[in-house]
Input
Amino acid sequence: MPLTRTYDALGVLAPAWDELALSAGSPFLTHEWLGRWWHAFGTGEHPIWVVCHDDDGSMRAGACLQRTRGNGLASAADELSGDWGVLARDAHARRDMWKSILGLGASRIHLDRVLEPASADTLGDALESSGYRAVRRAGPYSPWLALPGSWEEMLAGVSRKFRSEIRQRRRALERAGRANLRTSCGGPDLERDVQRFLRLEASGWKGRAGTSILGNADAEGLYLGFARDAAGKGWLRLDLLELDGEVIAASYGCAFAGVATMLKTCFDESHRRLAPGTVLAAEVVRRSIEEGLRACDFLGEREPYKERWTSEVRPREQIWAYRTEALPGYLYRSRLRPALKGARDLARARLPHNGAQAVRT
Output
């Protein structure tokens, strides 16, 4: 008979947890990312590591959650997390884990960035049988690029215009100076390289808007700490595009379960004319193919520069679930909030075309 327990810390269970995360294919489900994320942004006294054990004590499923106010429960995830989900050895273990989570007795549950397989019918059935009413919203739809066997095959799969642009941008960069892609996977220069990435990310519009990683001490600690952990595991891929020794574009990512995951990218806006972001993306894709990886996960939402590479997406989902005592929250989320949004969108649509200009003047 499977036994489910909750832990404040995983301890000796961490290797078994990461083995299941590897099977799930997400670095955001590793003990390393979840632990660092909770330390930076988690609520409650400690994270809730829910673990389902087999009869022999081995781990068969797991999930990391956090307590929220008023007997609430939430996934250990936010907009910085690419995804979240339940780890499970098989479909039976996944079903048991969902039942265990719902059995914790929370009056309301919010699950953010849930991977599609984890939010399939087993979750819907479990919510209904446990007395929850759920509101589900699809998204984000993160662009996903299946990698071919060679760079030449990759180029043949994109549009002729984009293929020409990739080559032209690379040649223009080489004419401007000594161009070089350096990939940091760890070593003595890791701290310096991460700081160079963080300073570059803060040098543009994010820095001016106050939304850069360096503008948030908790976020800085998350990315610095995970870089160290990922480097120790051999996952880290910090790609730095240099021009005459100066970093003009960078990608903070990792190679995990055969997938190149791009957590954050940035470029020097003073070199915009050279399109360093396009050159960097091409070099990361090329290196990933040469490394033998099977796919690139661009994360985030669909954006034109990502969709030039692929039309395929990897969907996530948001789920809000409420028991009877939290029914007002369900009514707000399922009815009132959509109605308010519809009224707001209608009001905006009725504004005169020059309304924005009139306000500014």
Remarks:
- The chain has 13 helices and 13 strands.
- The first strand starts at residue 3 and ends at 7.
